[in-house]
Hints:
By secondary structure, this protein is an alpha/beta fold. The protein has 2 domains: 153 residues, Aspartate Aminotransferase, domain 1, CATH 3.90.1150.10; 241 residues, Type I PLP-dependent aspartate aminotransferase-like (Major domain) (Aspartate Aminotransferase, domain 2, 3-Layer(aba) Sandwich). 41% of the residues lie in helices and 16% in strands. The strands form 4 sheets. A 7-stranded mixed beta sheet has the order 4-10-9-8-7-5-6, sandwiched between helices. The longest helix is centred in the last third of the chain and has 22 residues. Bound molecules: pyridoxal-5'-phosphate (PLP). Keywords: Aminotransferase, Pyridoxal phosphate, Transferase. This is Aminotransferase class I/II-fold pyridoxal phosphate-dependent enzyme.
Amino acid sequence: MCSMPTPPWARSAAGANTYDAATATVLPTIYERTTAAAMTHGGINLGQGFPDADGPQWLREAAAEAISTNAGPTNQYSPGPGFPWFREAVAAHQRRFYGVELDPQDQVLHTTGATEAIAATILAFAPAGSEVLAFEPFYDSYGAIAALAGAELKTVPLRAPEFRPDIAALEAAVTERTSMILVNSPHNPTGAVFTREELEAIVGIAAAGGAVVMSDEVYEHLMLDDAAGHSTILSIPGADQVAVAIGSAGKSFSVTGWKVGWVTGSARLVNQVRGVKQFTTFCTGGAYQYAVAQGLQDDRGFFAQNQAELRAGRDLLAAGLAEAGLRVFSPDAGYFVLADVRGVTPKTAAEFAAELVSAAGVGAIPVSSLTLPSTQHNPEDELNYLLRFAFCKRHDVLADAIGRLSDWLG
Ligand SMILES: Cc1ncc(COP(=O)(O)O)c(C=O)c1O
C-alpha cells in the first residue's frame, strides 16, 4: 500500500520532491528554484527547458488575430474536448506524421498543456493503492499526480550511456497492483528515443498485465538524430486497446507559455480521460487552439529549422562541457544534455549544481530531483551524479555559460 498518510497537497508535493518536511510547506519546483537562483546570481539559466527565441511570428499573429477578431470564434468557452477544428488538426497531424487514423470527434481531447493531460490521465487510470511504473529519471509531474491519486510510483532506471529502457526489468516490476506504465519518448532528460521494438514490448507487457500506458510524446518534433526515428505509441499494433498518447504545442512550436496539449487514443480511453479533464479546467486557450491548429496542419518549415538550431546548440554545449572535464551524453532528441560531474568533483550533482549557480552563475538541474527519494539516498546510484543542461538557448548564451563553467573549474 501507499505509505503516505498525509493530506493530498502534501502527498502531491512529496511525490515531486517539493515537500519541505522541516516546515511542512511546499517548495517551488526544481525548475523555478533553479531559475530564481540563476537570477539572484546574475547568471545564466540552463535549468528550465524553455527556448530563448519565441515561436514563429505567423503563429503568434494567428493567436493575436483570433483574440482581436474573435476568429473561430475563440473568445468564449470552447467545447470541453476542444474546438472541432483543433481536434481535426491534431488528427490530421497524427495521420501525416505517423499514419495513425483518429476520429476527431471522440479520439482527440484538448488539454491545458501536456501537464493537464498527464494529470487527467493518471487520475483517470491509477486507483488509490495501485502501482504506477515509470522509467527513472521521470518528469516530476508524474510523481506528483501519482501520489495525489494515492498510487505508488515505482521506477525502472534508464542507465548511461544509452539510457535504453530495460524491458526485462519493466516486466519484472509489474505486479497484480500495476495500474499504469508511464512512457516518455523522446525522453526528458536523457534524450533517449524508444525504438518501435521497445514500444511493442511495453504495449505487450501492459496488455498482459491489464495496465494502461500513458505515452508522453511532447518532444516529438525535437528530433536531433534522424536515425533515431520517433514513433507515436498509437502506431504500434494493439496499442489502441491499452495506450493514450500525449502531445504539446509548447515544445513543438517554441511557445511553452501557451499550454496547448492533447490526448489521443481509442474513443473509450479518451472518454475516460475526459471524465477528469472536464472538471480540471473544462476548456482553455481558444485563441491558442486556433493558432496551433494552423501550425499542426502546416508548420511552414519551422520544425526542421528549429531542429537544425537545436542540433547546433547541443553540439556547442556538449563540446564545451566535455572540454571542461565532464562526461557528456549527447541526446538524440529534446532540449537537454546530461553530464556526469564525477570527472570534476567528488560531490553529488545536486551539491555541484548549488555551487555552480552561486559561484559561476550557471543554473542546471540535478537529475536526482527527477528520481525517487530511495534513489537519492543511494550514493552508488549514477543518477545522483548527472546534471541536466538545457541547450535551447541562444548560442552566445551557451558560449557564455561554458566560459563561466570552465573559468570556475579552473
Ligand atoms: C516530459 C514532459 N512532459 C510534459 C511537459 C509539460 O508540457 P506542457 O508545457 O505542454 O504542459 C514537459 C515540460 O517540460 C515535459 O518535459
